[in-house]
Amino acid sequence: PGGPAAAPLPEEDCMRLNPSFVGIALSSLLAIDLWASKRLGVCAGEGSAWGSARPLMKVIEVSGHGIPWLLGTFYGLCQSDSSAAREVLLNLLFALLLDLMMVAVVKGLVKRPRPTHNKMDMFVTFSVDKYSFPSGHATRAALVCRFFLRHLVLAVPLRVLVVLWALIVSISRVMLGRHNMTDVLFGLVLGYALYSVVEYCWLSPLNAPALFALW
Predict the structure, then answer these.
(1) Is 179 annotated in the active site?
(2) 137 is catalytic
(3) With 88 labelled, which of 99, 120, 185, 211 sits at a CA distance of 20 to 30 A?
(4) How would CATH label the architecture of 21-213?
(5) Which position among 65, 117, 137, 151 bears the catalytic label?
(6) DSSP per residue over 178-210, as a string?
(7) What are the Phosphatidic acid phosphatase type 2/haloperoxidase domain coordinates in residue numbering (predicted)?
(8) For residue 18, what is the enclosing H or E element?
(9) Nearest Cα residue to 176 out of 44, 47, 58, 59
(10) In the chain, where are the structural domains located?
């Protein structure tokens, strides 16, 4: 009493002392995401709970990597002697390139670091691969899965295997400690959406004759 009046807190300090409900909810979800992802990273190292399964998980990792898919699609395009097959393969190549570009852009914008329990021993990495969000493997798995189910004539058992492959590749990213769960979930949503872009921009001899003339 009788002393000088207390100076008002700066606005940013008031915001920190009175966080919004949305801010609290996002912080809580992030904490749960980090905690659950670390608990599920059972193959993150040789000494982990399922460390003996790590080599198998790394084989699955390669099966969802962009380079084998790009090289395999390009090779099939060069070897194909069917106009219908060339059209499908050319659009698959376009889808894979679009996937790589979009994932690189989002990773570069978000710049979320990889989980602390991850070992940087991934198969062929580039500059943006040091970032975690989103999972490029999950994005690619969802995109390729939708593409195959829509444009390849597959028996029911093969269609089930394609879906299982996409799920296993996505789950393996968390098990290996490469990604947090939200990275994988967003990757699956992004890959699912990118397929719609590929369908909308479908390349055919009518709208892209120059591309088909190359083959």
Answers:
(1) yes
(2) yes
(3) 185
(4) Up-down Bundle (1.20)
(5) 137
(6) SS-HHHHHHHHHHHHHHHHHHHHT---TTT-HH
(7) 88-199
(8) none
(9) 44
(10) 21-213
